[in-house]
Amino acid sequence: QPLVSSSKWLQVYGLKRNKLSLSQILSQIGFQHRKDYVTTLGKLVASRYADGLFPQYERAQDGSVYNLTAKKELILHFVDCLMGAIELYKQRIEWLTSESRQIFGVIQEQCIVIVLDFGTAVPAEFDLCRDALSMVLVEQVTQIAKFNLIRAAQDLMKWQQKSTPVSKHTVKSAVTWLWKLDHMTAASHTSSAEALLEAMSDEAVSS
Question: Please, which domain of life does this record's source organism belong to (predicted)?
């Protein structure tokens, strides 16, 4: 799936966009039971002509009442549409909470620098971190334009001097570089900040 934010995804697949929100459905299967203020009479006048003629639905949000006039076929059509929307939402949630996205979210920038700060991770944790980073490189970075890796250390370590165009070769090279890193490396109390400043100094990086 393309790396789009949930807000952009909802602009295409959301209930409102597809006229499936509650208020939109109600307006297509009935009409609102009005109680309006008539200025000339100086009082509220209820439209009683629909009382008892139609099934009614009261919205819990605002207490408005709708007279339902649609035939069964139209209501079943909306049921099918809503069931389809629920299935689509489930798929989206499963995708958002799987693989690299459950750790890194959905990368939306076209140029990124990933700063690696392994701190005092034990060897098993170090390998888990590298597994996760390899996953995000293969699954998400392959869909953007440029990237780089910087390891926070006393002597800063960079995969490339500046962000590099994405290709199968560069992603494979970055994964190889990642797995050749030593577990332990000298660090200082300013290593993390220096690595972040170095990442932000790359003019191609948007954020």
Answer: Eukaryota
